[in-house]
Description:
The complex is a heterotrimer. Chain A is built from 16 helices and 21 strands. By secondary structure, chain A is of the alpha/beta class. Chain B has two domains: about 5-285, Spore Coat Polysaccharide Biosynthesis Protein SpsA, Chain A, CATH 3.90.550; about 300-415, no CATH class. Chain B is about 50% helix and about 10% strand. Chain B contains 17 helices and eight strands. Chain B has an eight-stranded mixed β-sheet, sandwiched between helices. In chain B, α4 crosses α7, α11 crosses α13 (about 320-335) and α14 runs antiparallel to α15. Chain C has eight helices and no strands. Chain C has helices at about 1-55, 55-65, 65-70, 80-100, 105-150, 155-175, 180-205, 210-230. The longest helix of chain C is centred in the first third of the chain and has 53 residues, at about 1-55. The radius of gyration of chain C is 30 Å and the shape is elongated. The termini of chain C are far apart. At the B-C interface, α6, α9, α11 and α15 of B face α5 and α8 of C.
Amino acid sequence: MTILQDALWYKDAVIYQVHVRTFYDSNGDGIGDFRGLAQKLDYLQDLGINAIWLMPFFPSPLRDDGYDIADYRSVHPSYGDLEDFKVFLDAAHQRGIRVIIEMVLNHTSDQHPWFQQSRSTRDNPKRDWYVWSDSDTRYRGTRIIFVDTELSNWAWDPVSKQYYWHRFFSHQPDLNYDNPAVRAEMWDIMKFWLEMGVDAFRLDAVPYLVEREGTNCENLPETHEVIRELRAKVDQQFPGRMLLAEANQWPADLRPYFGNGDEFHMAFHFPLMPRMFMGLKLEDRKPITEILQQTPSIPDNCQWCLFLRNHDELTLEMVTDMERDYMYDEYAREKTMRLNLGIRRRLAPLLDNDRRRIELMNGMLMSLPGTPIIYYGDEIGMGDNVNLGDRNGVRTPMQWDGGWNGGFSLADPEALYSPLMLNPVYGFQAVNVQSQKRFDHSLLSWMKRLIKTRKSMPVFGRGSIEFLYPANHRVLAYVRQLGRDIILVVNNLSSSAQAVELDLKRYKGNILIEMFGRNIFPRIGDLPYLLTMGPYQFYWFRLRRI
Amino acid sequence: MAEESILTDDFLRELMNVGEVDILVGVPTFNDARTVGQVVQAIRAGLLKYFPRQRAVIINADGGSKDETQELVRAASISDLQHGSNLPALRTLHCISTRYSGPPQGGNALHTIFAAGDLLRASACAVVAADSTSIEPEWLDRLLRPVTRDNFDLITPLYRRHKFDGLLVRNLVYPMSRAIYARQIREPYASEFAFSGRLNTHFLSAESPQYGESGNEFNLLVAAISGGFRIAQAFLGDKTRLDQPPSDLVQAMRQTVAPLFGSLERNFPYWSNDGQPQPIPAIGPVPELNLEPLRINRKRLFQMFTHGVSELRPVFEVILSPTTYAELQRAAAKSEDQFSFKDELWVRTVYEFAASHHKEVINRDHIIQALAPLYRGRAYTFLVENRDASSEQVEENVEGLCRTFERLKPYLLDMWERK
Amino acid sequence: MREIIISELTQAMHEIARSFARFLPRLAVMLVIVIVGWVIAYSLRAALRSILRLLRFDRLSEHAGATELLQKAALPSSSELLSRFVFWVAWLGFILVGISFLGIVGVQEHISGFFGFLPRLFAAMFLFFFGLMASSFFSRAALLAAVNADLPSPRLISSTIRVLIVILVASMTFEELGLAEHTVLVAFAIVFGALMLGLALAFGLGGRDLARRFLERRFVHAEKDEREDELSPL
């Protein structure tokens, strides 16, 4: 099976986010690697996903989980080498799975040779590759992102006796994009990977590329210029490849990153995600509909990326103070769960391991307009370990079976890069792929059916969305449409049974066909359409006129 | 025979869409478009500020307004349908309005609100009058927080009133209900109050279907007292109403004195026992009286009193005992500056009226109407005696009257039994 | 010839005796009916008396003001009166039935006429009684309303209303009884019309000033009062 050449493949994609380190260890050193990942491609193909997003795997001191890069053209030795990567890439393509890798443009590790050179003396040729300053008062007013660890965006370098600029950790100095040499080199690196066959890049931390005095140093026009340049080159030399933006901004501020269809192909819809959780707790669809009402329309060849959880904390930057307090109180009672204006928990623990809620959230993920991303392990309902530092609680080893190390590695348990989950509820003996594969009613089997249904119709990825506003505020209902295909999605956000009347006059005469069981429901007539729903239940209906 | 429900089908459907709530605020209206907009906005602001996370609903029970009362209420709802609304609200806030079946009476409106509160399982309910233009968002907090947080079942209000405002309450309704039911509740007939879901359920299950009567709030109070529920009084603020003609005295008496007399009959076993008056906790500052000077036509009050005493002789002869009526005649014969309607005479008069009301010597409504001129005489005396009085002195006088009511309670019991 | 006269006389005597003999049993039956009727009427009266006491009929008639009237006329209480009335009507009915049984021609019609009259009699009594109640209720209501609205001469208004209603009720009763219907009707119309005309004239001409002052007091005076009398009793 080969990759279909479709310029808009990312609109139909179902993406699986995984860190190679966490997935499968083939050489018994306690750390997952590419050979192991390649071995598990069958599982992923079976699950139904058709794109993998790999977390950073370049050489790195790993002080920020690989986002501090020390070499852009290689693979961290723990995960294998470039050859292993190529083998994995080909194997993925053979199974019809595309590969998206991380490209951290904004900064490097302070261990990167470039920085080592840059800081050595003031007149080093690479001096200007980073942003240096005599005082730490420039660009005042720029917010600090890692508020729990950093006190300033400037760090003092004792070697060259100047301050250098870093929007993230102090060991991640920002590259200077005003320098054309930097831009040329970064393109060269991207070309390197594109020629190897990588299908897309997730460009990390793009809002912060360029700094200017008197601004908040985010989303500046110069930054957009850099991106337009990159995109033009990609389109010219590697058509069909995709650029995905990681920019944690309000939807209105995100819109410029799509440009006129000449910047990013996709961007994460960050503000939607916490509101889905909020709507679930409030049992009120208002937070969800309001954020989507405020979401601007994007060019036809662009797409939003939706997700429930990821490797980072569930960020609450893009909510009001009142909403943040509410989320903290409802979802993160213990202070240890809170980090950097967010909540560091996995999907299942956030939802109290409630199967119905997990299904509902996944159902919304798969039916709202955008490309869905599944975080590894959430398809079997893995738990988290809040006692691990930073965000590592959600990055524990993948649980394959109930045996040695959960089937992740043959090494000693103490040698694993991270401890396994052991408690009776989320431990690897309770939650693992092997046992879930055996049963039709397991979460894994259900996810497979969900993904299959989603992929069966392009309307989910490419169609329009129109909200219905039934008087019962606990029900979120919307219609997806693409050409003649019309899908009605109804979600009950409440923990109790609900009755809802939908105004479907526009679709009068259509028969509703429930998409999972394929049973027919009454035809739409003149009266409002009455549906009764169980707790957290959702329906996908196909409208058919015969 | 199937009982006709006070809830229409449409309203029931709207309730279904609201679902279970934590807080319900009811606003009875009838042609209140002038003031209801402001009141509902204040309620909404109070809910958003003090109870942002609770599920709440504002329910308007309307008697058939011909103006835009109902539209004004509905416009205050917060939902995702109003694109671009900038209110910082976590949740949807439904504001629904219904026209209850039956004539526009306070009793019907209240019954609608009670029923809605029961169906929606609201743990705290409040009722706010549609013409309370002095309402502040804080009132919601003061009324509802004792119910939601401190487990009180009924919160009656305390207002900062003018010295001469609410004379009927101060001279009759308050002292008598305090003596009868042994609770010092200053505003037994309140237009703003709050109650718990527990009390609501208890009240609805016990109440006989006579909801058309006014005075349901008083019946609720009596139910709370006799049921042993926790009651408190919360200070709200000024009690002012929009400039409008003063409510007809007879109508006011029908709304307050008639339910009071009526409740005596229903609750006889409860109040016929001796009870020591229990103080009711007051939340918030104790209100001072507003001592602004006010021009009042006292002369007319006196005239209507004397006029009534003589003209209504055939009626009084049936209602009052001969001695009491003779005393009244003697008092009425005095000149204006010598006239004084003493506490003791007033209390005995009222008690005899209550007993006659119970025995239904003539039509009960006529009994209430007959009391009006006598009350005017009493009001005259009150105005004269307190013309230059300070807050404390007025309080003392009212306290004195209360004690007289308490002291003469056996007299009422005696009259009650007598044929 | 003497034998013929004697035989005719004897025959005639025999006839009289025979018809007398035929008459006697009927008389006996009639007497039995009358006695039985008395017993029934008596028990009816007793029963009615207890029923009326249960229904507290006396109280009702007090409300109607009927008791007052009866006392003034030195008659017994209304329930007693009613019971006795029923007794007499019932017994009279039985007597009439008995008489009809005697077979005296011509009496039948009148007797059935009597029984036809009874329902109307009761209807009229009913009407009169409740009419009295209404008059007392409305006159009192008017009195109270007038006093509370500070109208002049409330007692006059109250009595006027009572008298008007009583006259109306009396006319209706007579009409129901069928006694001099037209006369009463016309008389009533004349009285009522004259009263109305008189009032109109009074207001329009002679009572101009009074009317003006009255209206002023109703509307203008009330305003002044409102401003000063701003207290709400609640």
